[in-house]
Amino acid sequence: MPDFIPTLIVGVSILVVLLIVFGGIFGPSPFPGRLTSSKTIDLGKDFTVSYTTGTADVVSTSGEIARGLFAGQDKGIAFDISNPSDATEGILKLNVKNTNLYGSMIIRLNGNEIYRGFPRIGNHSIRFGGRNFTGSNVLDFIAESSGWRIWAPTVYTFDSSVTVDYIGKQSQTFNFNITNLELTNTARARIVVFADRQGINDFIVRINDVEIYRGLTNVFTDFPVDVLKEGTNTVEMSAEPNTTYRVSNAQIILFF
What is the pTM of this model? Predict the structure, then answer.
């Protein structure tokens, strides 16, 4: 028997074992439609997700308003706020120093009535929805007429201030596509995220509206394959309150 025959037999045997165990040769498949051993989907790099809450003092004013049969005096003040879409609630603190209660006090923000009543001397707290705010705002204090009391107008002398409660949510959404062939042959799926954290709360990942991860980064976690679907898939990343994550890299890895 020639000397190279034993070596050839050993080589052929190793090749047969590889074909049986791995179903083919390592590396990209030379055959159209055949999948490789894994696929990495880059979702995004260098982005931020955050969830912030807070309170800000935005305006204060004082003065006197009056309304009677022959004369009237209103009080108005303009002010700006940043990120009005993040405002959840406004709180107006009203300190009435003097009044005769002949008519009601009316308070309007940007033309929308947020209070009407008869506030007595002392401190009052008036809450109203954050949707009343815009970037540029006008706050008006108006006294209702004293009506048949022609001898004197309605009078309110007061101090006031307005604070705004904020909730700022910054999430990131990414889309990626999966073919029917890829979905059928996916055995495992993994989310990988590298990020720096400011705050103490969790990082959240949802795929197709299903939460697959809630915890601290970095993330190196497998998730159920049945979360995925053929066609367009959506990944949403967010944070719990008072926490910011600066993400350097985010990927999904499919294993076939």
Answer: 0.63
